[in-house]
Design a protein that fits this description.
Structural class: mainly beta
Strand content: 35-45%
Number of strands: 57
Strand order of the largest sheet: 23-24-25-26-27-28-29-31
Largest sheet: 8 strands, parallel, barrel
Distance between the termini: 56 Å
Helix content: 10-25%
Length: 894
């Protein structure tokens, strides 16, 4: 049956008589909304019946598709529409609309009247709407409209960043009905209750319950407040009752102390024991008016500049990850389960800490941290730079207050932060008077936010995360403002030398001896399609990513004064500005954006987990290849990550060897054979076997292409590259280039393409190659080659040549994550060349004035017959400038 155009969600309350006994109704209204992309002239004052509404449900983002396209993603206005049905019995209730998050400027209308406006895309907001609702029938239709705008706005953080600013109502929306006397949920969209634990020890704990009660009646009221503490299994252990006099049409504060809870079960990362505390309001007749339940975790903690972090009096190195909130095909509009799964993924790695970057996230995140034992830092999105305006400052302050008040009761929270790399992209000319004033205004804003935070919640620490310009942050005075300084350090990635990491930490400890320090970001890209036997900086292979993290973890653990570290990042995430081998994606995650762990995840698991771990490295690299040796095998190293003393490895049911685990790694040299190879790793502890399995489709290439014992089938080669590339979907493996040798295959002549002026990337380009998903193949290139030869046996073959013109005259600004602000410019090519296969011209004057459009993939396939033992010789003859070739595929038909 066709749904009505109004997209009605009917809230049926069949048991309205229960309302008097039920203190509040809080119900999602996520289903059956209408969405219109773009603004609507005169709306909502003038209804436009011609407007087309797309039927959607929440959570929703209008950027699920375009953030992976190369034409820009939509940042502008969108409208949402919904009809709700409200019972007449709600007329004397307090009714509000509660949004967990909508990015970034929201205007909410009820029946055409403005209910409220909220600025900021990452904190919740709530508007009272009871006076705007219609109650003329027993159940009456009411229309909700939401105008949302995620346009760039210099008044609202974030201004720019290495993540995507998705638009939409991307979290849950609730309709809440309470009695006229209720806990005040309209103050910063908090729940009206604040739980404090002013004293906690192994022997004793005290609890303070503070709150606000709203009375919307025109008369004074006296109510009874009951707060009860329950154990995890529901046993009542403490309660307190208080009488509170309420002013008419006002807000009244109250406070209760539940002292001397003996021998509390402490909350810790290993044992996240949660009590819960129920706070209730009763009238003089004993009727329950409102009720709130909050988690209660007994713990105490401190940061020490010399010896690190302590939880419940015991030293604890904080090791964890940063986390962004998007998912492929969903943008940031995730159901609760996916948020919870990410925290479970982090916990399973053995981590004990999360930096919720760079903005407050779904309530499900901190709820999961409370349950699973993950300590957390949370921050507002002041990233890279500020705007020197009063509006910007006030928006920052309000965001900070909303974040703290909405999340105050989570025992997992230990840090409130408020800036990230804020001096990375300063305004104005370097060292100008304007820039000096700008730096002063940044420090002024930091001081205001730090003071606000300490006043609002003195029980937690404050923190700013800085990029690795020690002198600048110290000179501006940023290092003196928060209680903790976090450093985002990328030595061995953006900066050249690993040694600089340890030297930087030593400098902090030497020059800021009283300032606790954390490493709040470190990481290297790891593209699961790319592998190398000789990994090097910025090659984005899984092997280099693993080497990088091994070095960093060792240095972090060796320094007691480093309180902890958060790797960048838990999972790969969308960053539209990125244009390199994985366009619009930051691949520094220790798991993919689809939450598949990479090698380094298992390395951390072996180091951090208290459970026995045996995991085969590169276990998801299931399509690989190599060149056969004299025994028709190809030996490649396999790492097994384990926290056991030794590990054994089997290949196709036969024991290869048993190796001692050193630094959580057991190394095996595996002689792969052509076809499927089944691996089993086994470790034993206390008589219990711990096993891991993987199967690898190994595509063996004969050393000599006419080898009758290993007939030639297919060869894929990436030119100008030292890495291999895997296309799992097509089950194709691409070998790196090699020079031609008789009887085999390879290039003749030429040199590897490299970007001029690049300090990061030795070979290839970091541009987004359009028209392909195989960017790594097209982004590397052999320049000036004369031939590519293959001494294949006679037969029919498909030969596919892959080209990209990598040079263009487009001016490109270095992106923010490259940690410099220079503009890169190169001269466009004007090349053309003829292409021959076995002396027959197959392409006449291939060049930039025909198929070689700069930064676009071009491929062409030929069917050829090889006879008389001549093999295949692809010959390139230059006409203007040098010849190029990016990749070649040769497949035998028969």
């Amino acid at each position: 049956m066709k749904k009505p155009a109004s997209l009605v969600l009917i809230l049926i309350f069949g048991f309205l008589g229960l309302l008097s006994a039920q203190p509040a109704i809080k119900q999602t209204i996520n289903s059956n909304w209408g969405f219109h992309k773009g603004d609507i002239a005169g709306f909502p004052a003038k209804n436009n019946s011609a407007v087309k509404w797309e039927e959607i449900s929440l959570p929703h983002s209008w950027n699920t598709v375009d953030v992976n396209q190369d034409t820009g993603y939509y940042r502008g206005i969108g409208w949402y529409k919904k009809t709700i049905y409200v019972p007449s019995s709600w007329q004397n209730k307090n009714t509000c609309l509660y949004f967990e998050g909508a990015n970034q400027v929201a205007e909410v209308y009820v029946n055409g009247q403005l209910a409220g406006k909220h600025i900021g895309g990452y904190t919740a907001f709530s508007f009272p709407v009871g006076k705007l609702l219609n109650y003329k029938d027993s159940i009456t239709a009411n229309e909700i409209l939401v105008k949302l705008d995620n346009s760039p706005n210099e008044k609202i953080p974030p201004l720019n960043a290495d993540f995507t600013f998705f638009g939409g109502i991307y979290r849950d929306v609730y309709l809440i009905s309470t009695n006229p006397v209720h806990f005040n949920i309209d103050s910063s969209a908090a729940n009206g209750i604040r739980i404090k634990t002013p004293l906690v020890s192994d022997a004793m704990a005290n609890v303070t319950v503070e709150g606000e009660i709203a009375n919307s009646l025109n008369r004074k009221e006296t109510v009874k407040i009951l707060s009860s503490v329950f154990t995890a299994d529901g046993k009542l252990i403490k309660e307190i009752k208080s009488n509170v006099s309420l002013a008419a049409n006002g807000i009244t504060k109250f406070s209760q102390n539940l002292d001397k809870i003996e021998n509390p079960h402490l909350w810790s990362t290993d044992d996240p024991y949660l009590y819960h505390i129920v706070t209730s309001i009763y009238d003089n007749n004993g009727n329950l008016l409102d009720q709130q339940t909050n988690p209660l975790g007994f713990r105490w903690f401190k940061f020490d500049a010399a010896t690190g972090f302590y939880l419940n009096g015991k030293p604890l190195k904080l090791i964890g990850a940063n986390r962004h909130q998007d998912y492929p095909g969903m943008a940031n509009a995730l159901p609760d389960a996916l948020h919870q799964n990410d925290i479970a993924l982090l916990k399973a790695m053995g981590a004990n800490f999360i930096r919720i970057s760079h903005y407050p996230q779904d309530p499900a995140v901190l709820e999961a941290c409370d349950r699973l034992g993950i300590l957390a830092s949370e921050e507002i999105p002041i990233v890279n730079r500020i705007t020197q305006s009063e509006e910007f400052t006030e928006n920052c302050k309000r965001m900070q207050l909303e974040m703290i008040r909405q999340n105050y009761n989570h025992p997992s929270i230990i840090i409130w932060a408020y800036m990230n790399e804020v001096l990375l992209q300063p305004r104005f000319q370097r060292d100008s008077p304007e820039q000096q004033k700008y730096f002063g205004d940044v420090a002024k804003l930091a001081k205001a936010l730090d003071s606000l935070t300490r006043n609002e919640d003195p029980s937690r620490y404050t923190m700013i995360s800085c990029h690795g310009d020690f002198d600048r942050y110290n000179k501006v005075g940023i290092t003196q403002i928060p209680q903790i300084i976090g450093w985002n350090l990328y030595y061995g990635w953006y900066a050249p030398d690993f040694e600089g990491f340890g030297q930087f930490l030593a400098r902090h400890h030497r020059e800021l001896p009283d300032k606790p320090v954390m490493v709040t970001e470190y990481g290297a890209d790891g593209d699961t399609r790319l592998h190398s036997a000789n990994p090097e900086r910025f090659d984005k292979t899984i092997e280099y990513q693993t080497i990088y993290h091994k070095k960093y973890l060792k240095e972090i653990m060796a320094r007691p004064f480093v309180a902890g570290a958060a790797m960048w990042c838990l999972v790969d995430f969308n960053s539209y500005a990125r244009i390199d081998a994985s366009p619009h994606t930051n691949t520094k995650g220790v798991a993919t954006n689809e939450r598949v762990p990479k090698d380094v995840y298992y390395y951390y698991q072996a180091n951090l987990s208290k459970q026995p771990v045996v995991k085969i490295g590169s276990r998801n690299w299931t399509v690989r290849g190599g060149i056969a040796d004299a025994n028709a095998t190809c030996t490649q190293p396999i790492e097994v990550y384990s926290n056991l003393s030794e590990v054994s490895l089997w290949l196709n049911g036969k024991l290869l060897s048993t190796q001692t685990v050193t630094n959580k790694v057991a190394l095996f040299n595996v002689p792969f054979t052509n076809g499927m190879n089944n691996l089993k790793a086994l470790g034993i502890k206390d008589g219990v076997n711990y096993e891991d399995f993987t199967s690898i489709n190994f595509q063996m290439q004969p050393a000599l292409l006419k080898d009758l014992n290993l007939p030639f089938k297919e060869l894929n080669v990436s030119l100008g590259d030292t890495r291999s590339y895997t296309d799992s979907k097509l089950q194709q493996f691409w070998l790196p280039e090699k020079p031609y040798t008789p009887g085999s295959w390879g290039y003749i002549g030429g040199h590897v393409f490299s970007m001029k002026g690049s300090a990061l990337q030795k070979a290839g380009t970091n541009k987004n190659i359009l028209g392909t998903n195989d960017d790594p193949i097209y982004a590397t290139q052999k320049v000036g080659l004369s031939d590519f030869k293959l001494d294949v046996p006679d037969g029919k073959y498909q030969v596919t040549l892959l080209f990209t013109e990598l040079l263009s005259n487009k001016e490109r600004q270095s992106l923010v994550y490259d940690l410099n602000n220079t503009t890169q410019k190169e001269e466009a090519a004007n090349r053309s060349f003829d292409v021959y296969i076995n002396s027959q011209k197959v392409f006449d004057a291939l060049g930039d004035d025909n198929y070689l459009e700069p930064e676009h993939a071009f491929s062409v396939r030929y069917i050829i017959d090889v006879i008389n033992g001549v093999g295949i010789d692809v010959n390139f003859k230059p006409i203007k400038e040098e010849t190029i070739l990016n990749g070649i595929q040769v497949k035998r038909v028969f």
